[in-house]
Amino acid sequence: MSATQFLFWFLSILALFSAIMMVVSKSPVHSVLWLIVVFFAISVHYVLLNAQFLAIVNLIVYAGAIMVLFLFVIMLMNLNAETEPLKNKWLKITGVIGGGALMLVLVAALKDADIRNRIAETNKGEIGLIHNLGMALFKEYVIPFEISSVLFLSAMVGTVVIGKKE
Amino acid sequence: MHVFLSLDWFLLIEKAILISIIIGISLIVAMYETWAERKVAAVIQDRRGPNRAGPGGIFQPLADGLKLFMKEEIVPNLSNKFLFILGPGIAMLTAMMTSAVVPWAGNIHAFGRDIPLQVADVNIGILYIFGVVSMGVYGVMIGGWASNNKFSLLAAIRGASQIISYELAMGLTLIAVLMLTGSLSLRTIVEQQLDHKYYVFYQPVGFIIFLVCAFAECNRTPFDLSEAESELNMGYHQEYSSMKLGFYLFAEYVNMFISSAVMATVFWGGYDIPFLNDAKFGQEHGQNLLAGLELLCLFLKIAFFIFFFIWVRWTIPRFRYDQLMNLGWKALIPLAILNMLVTGFVILFH
Amino acid sequence: MQALTSKAKPVGRKPMTFWEKLYIPAIAKGMAITFKHIFRKKPTINYPEKTRPFSPVFRGVQVLNRDEEGRERCTACGLCAVACPAEAITMEAAERLPGEENLYREEKYAVKYEINMLRCIFCGLCEEACPKDAVYLSETMVPSNYNRKTFVYSKQELLIPNPLTDPEAFAKAKGARPEKTL
């Protein structure tokens, strides 16, 4: 087993374990912290694929900004077991069925995809480097990129409008 | 078995030594920053400052460190014990991790190898610093929340929102710089500035914005809202004692050191020696001497910025929180965007 | 409302000009001021190594004086205890026995002489009342202590060192005080 493989297995197990812990932990703050661990594991996966830019942007945007805002809200709401709303038994069952159905669809879709024949380019892939990524974004995918930036802009304007309302 | 054979052992040893030296130096610099802080504060206020431990109080940081170690370690009963201990750990870890991408000097030649005085020349250098700094928020937030104290929590939230707000303006100024450099790697940025084309002359507004944001990111006065003792007692580290408190305080000083290094690197030519043609000097007097001088030069620049940090702390009083947010969102960010646009236009039509 | 005095200054509430809003000139001015202070002369005195000279009227801990031959001057007349507004001084008198002439100057002396330093207000009235120049206020402070009892100074603690056996300590305790003319 090479060092990369070892890291891959370690990170995968860490990511899955933290994801499960995120779902099952009682305290919402712990959930958020476990989710941050998941992001970390995924970011290191990106580094293994030589996609440093993606890795660091994943960290900055998700772990560094969005999760901090989540933490803000959760810490200020003072959630604990007493204030948790009563959960309907049927709600839980439908949740399990819904999640199971989603997993079934995903497995069915990915089963026949040719993803198994592809080999991940660890340590040597060039596409994740910032230069190539920039070229791809601003040449091939410039229209989707611009559309998404307009979307962001409209979201920003929306927040300002909501924030301004007295 | 072939895993171990395939590794470049020399590289590994070289990097391990370099990392330990850099961490050691960061800690020593942080120690003497505390001394410098007290000394500069004293002379600015017409006092003498610490002068009992050793000549000029030079051993004062050792005494302070020893004192912190000897103090009783208190973990509040109703706190979240694991997170309470994790908080200062994260703060220290993130402070230490930033130094990995800073180029300290040019290559030195030893043992038949060219050894770069930089831990990792990743091609996302500046973004890496950004990422690690944004992780630094968690040290403050986790510590503040786990203390189970309302003052700590409020301070933590203040601190975190302040850091996030100023990260935006900082990022926008960096974009303007990156338009000029065309590279994110800090070594490339320094090499572009080697013949005195310091980016501060091209980006003066950007530099000022970056400087202000660096103050906010390091939680230094006038932006030390998260430890505003007059309204929040001691801020997010109120419940901390002993070396855990020391870690938080130390992390602040390490951050100050690193942000001084980043400012010197990005805007003031990094390890470039002013008024000297580095490449020519290197050919005449040897690479190692050049690297040594470059290292010295970078540290002089860093020392100036650290002095500046301290100098500002003892000059400007703390901002009110709404003033801080107004400055960040309504002054610095628009200014940074404007700076970015102007830079873009100049590059486009030049 | 009518102003009571003409000293009130109206507060300028003009909105800041653009130049003022930049803050940078104001900050630079402040920084220049603090920078100038770095080179100022420091008024601090490195205390234990250097001491500030006391003023000639300084009143510190009382000292029981001896004359040039090392004899105690006090005759236990009690004038100091009477003069003391804080009633800090107590004493007991005794008669000098033959053969003690080198110890006590007069025929009567104080066997016990105590000053309670917690009561003493260092007014110096005891010194003024003393007809024999036997008690005076020196240039020493009362050192702090953990125990209240230790603040009642006995005669042994108050007595000045003997000028015959220990002239250096005598001179030091005496200080720069001029001899009182009787």
Name a few traits of the molecule:
heterotrimer, A: 166 residues, mainly alpha, 2 domains, 6 helices, 0% strand, C: 182 residues, three-stranded antiparallel β-sheet, two-stranded antiparallel ribbon
How are the SSEs placed, and which strands pair?
The complex is a heterotrimer of chains A (166), B (350) and C (182).
Chain A: H1 3-24, H2 28-48, H3 52-77, H4 89-111, H5 130-140, H6 142-164
Helix pairs in contact in A: 1-2, 2-3
Chain B: H1 2-6, H2 9-44, H3 60-70, H4 81-97, E1 105-110, E2 113-117, H5 125-146, H6 150-181, H7 186-192, H8 199-202, H9 204-217, H10 229-232, H11 242-267, H12 278-285, H13 287-313, H14 321-349
Antiparallel strand pairs in B: 1-2
Helix pairs in contact in B: 2-3, 2-11, 2-13, 3-11, 4-5, 4-11, 5-6, 6-9, 6-14, 9-11, 9-14, 11-13, 12-13
Chain C: H1 18-21, H2 24-38, E1 62-64, H3 79-83, E2 89-95, E3 108-116, H4 125-129, E4 135-137, E5 152-153, H5 155-158, H6 167-174
Antiparallel strand pairs in C: 1-4, 2-3, 3-5
What would you say this structure looks like, in words?
The complex is a heterotrimer of chains A (166), B (350) and C (182). Chain A has 6 helices and no strands. Chain A has 166 residues and is mostly helical. Chain A has 2 domains: 3-126, Up-down Bundle (Four Helix Bundle (Hemerythrin (Met), subunit A)), CATH 1.20.120.1200; 129-166. Chain A is globular. Chain B is mainly α. Chain B has one domain. A two-stranded antiparallel ribbon of chain B has the order 1-2. With 182 residues, chain C is α+β, with helices and mostly antiparallel strands. Chain C has helices at 18-21, 24-38, 79-83, 125-129, 155-158, 167-174, and strands spanning 62-64, 89-95, 108-116, 135-137, 152-153. Chain C has a 3-stranded antiparallel sheet. Chain C is elongated. The N and C termini of chain C lie far apart (67 Å). Chains in contact: A-B, B-C. Chain A binds chain B through residues 1-3, 6, 29, 33, 36, 52-53, 56-57, 59-60, 63-65, 68-69, 71-72, 75-76, 129-131, and chain B through 2-3, 6-7, 83, 122-124, 127-128, 130-131, 134-135, 137-138, 141-142, 145, 153, 156-157, 160-161, 164, 167, 184.
